[in-house]
Amino acid sequence: MNQILHIDTSPRGERSHSRTLASDFVANWKNSYLDSTITYRDIGHQIIPPVSETWIAAAFSPPNTHTPELTAALQLSNELIDELQKCDRYIFSVPMYNFSIPANFKAYIDQVCRVGRTFAVNQKGGYEGLLTGKKMLVITARGGSFPAGTPAANFDFQEPYIRTVFGLMGVTDINFVNAENLAMKGDMREQSLQSAKAKLTALITEWD
Ligand SMILES: Cc1cc2nc3c(=O)[nH]c(=O)nc-3n(C[C@H](O)[C@H](O)[C@H](O)COP(=O)(O)O)c2cc1C
């Protein structure tokens, strides 16, 4: 049985390409793997707050020293991390904004990337990810394209950032399906969408 965590990050609703691709994928997945459970969050609309001074004081002090105020500051963070621990497959839909990710997704990452909860620092000062045995699928939507091996690839801070920060937390098995050229007109845009859809259809059987 798979426990899926599905998170949409686009602030757009029906017009969102990343959201539509992800919801079609999850619907197909549920039809193929009937015993899967889905935990869903829409952080494009239910906004995750940025970390605060109280949050930082709480995250970097031992829980047994926490005042009620410090405990409360970590409540949402703990809830989000519990979801990441409980689920074994993550599906994130993510628009590219200014060559990177939307601010609300960054706020989510700041809430879940926590020493002692999702990563540890070992005695040699190295990092150890604590979210082990997880698989992640990231479906991105982009106005332009950033093909590997071309100068444009240097502008893609989205995929490398997501790989790095989730890698820090131990999530290294990550598939990306990037729907690109969505700001282009006509065939280019349509071909890109069809190609993303075909890759996602293949992943229903190949994402093992
Ligand atoms: C604020 C903003 C910034 C954007 N920055 C980029 C960018 O840097 N590169 C790019 O290729 N597309 C960029 N786009 C286009 C979006 O990635 C594209 O519209 C995508 O389809 C948005 O995802 P969604 O359809 O799931 O909402 C930007 C769009 C917005 C609204």
From TrEMBL:
The enzyme's main class, written as a single word, is: oxidoreductase
The Flavodoxin-like fold domain covers 3-202
A GO molecular-function descriptor: electron transfer activity
- Name the source's superkingdom: Bacteria
Cofactor(s), names only, from the UniProt record: FMN
**Keywords assigned:** Flavoprotein, FMN, NAD, Oxidoreductase
Could you tell me which species this protein originates from?
A: Brunnivagina elsteri CCALA 953
Q: Does the keyword Oxidoreductase apply?
A: yes
The protein's matches in Pfam families, at most eight in alphabetical order, are given as: Flavodoxin_2
Q: What is this protein's name?
A: FMN dependent NADH:quinone oxidoreductase
Binding sites annotated in the UniProt record for FMN:
S10, S16, H17, S18, M96, Y97, N98, F99
Quaternary structure and partners: Homodimer.
